[in-house]
Amino acid sequence: MLGVDLLSRFPFIWVIHVAVILYFGSAVLLLRSEFPGSLTALQANLPTWVLLVDGLVFAYMTFNFFLCMSLTGGGNADLVNGQYLLMSHGRIIEHLSRGAYHLHKAYELRMFSGAWLAFWAIGSGHFLFWKHVPVRSTNRLLA
């Protein structure tokens, strides 16, 4: 399944990118009001297994990123004037066959999907397992 170019088959797959940004961003915004800013508090408000899973997902994301960077040579597959090219910052790295082009597009999407997984896991840790502590009001009328 490594070489399947889903982007060519499902161009709307980038909706996942937007969804993950919104999901993670909303978790960060909600967490800001409750997070006192120390790693000790983070460990106290999340189950240990969630921190472990997040750590493993982050490790996978890092490994996946470097693997895909090495497989793509740091470039992006692009179709220019009917030619399949591997390019980096407007410079041609290599001419590709049609099959190699789709393989490189699959690597690019795989690189993003590793990050999607990590940000989704971190957001889910907050939404599903964070021990919410009620915020005390400093207003005496509301206390």
Outline the structure in words.
This protein has 143 residues and is mainly alpha-helical. It has five helices and three strands, in the order ααααβββα. It has a three-stranded antiparallel beta sheet with strand order 1-2-3, covered by helices on one side. α2 (15-34) packs parallel to α5 (98-129) and α4 packs antiparallel against α5. The longest helix is centred in the C-terminal third of the chain and has 32 residues, at 98-129. The relative contact order is 0.18.
Summarize the structure.
With 143 residues, the chain is mostly helical. It has one domain. Helices cover 62% and strands 11% of the residues.
What layout of secondary structure does this protein have?
Elements: H1 6-9, H2 15-34, H3 39-45, H4 48-72, E1 76-80, E2 83-88, E3 91-95, H5 98-129
Antiparallel strand pairs: 1-2, 2-3
Helix pairs in contact: 2-5, 4-5
Structure keywords:
62% helix, 3 strands, mainly alpha, 143 residues, elongated
| Count of distinct structural domains | 1
Could you give the distance between the termini?
Answer: 57 Å
Secondary structural class? mainly alpha
Instruction: Pick out the low-confidence regions.
Output: none
User: How is the largest sheet built, in terms of strand order?
Assistant: 1-2-3
- Identify the quaternary structure here: single chain
User: Could you tell me the strand content as a percent range?
Assistant: 5-15%
Rg (CA only): 21 Å
Dominant shape = elongated
The helix content, as a percent range, equals 55-70%
Report the strand count: 3
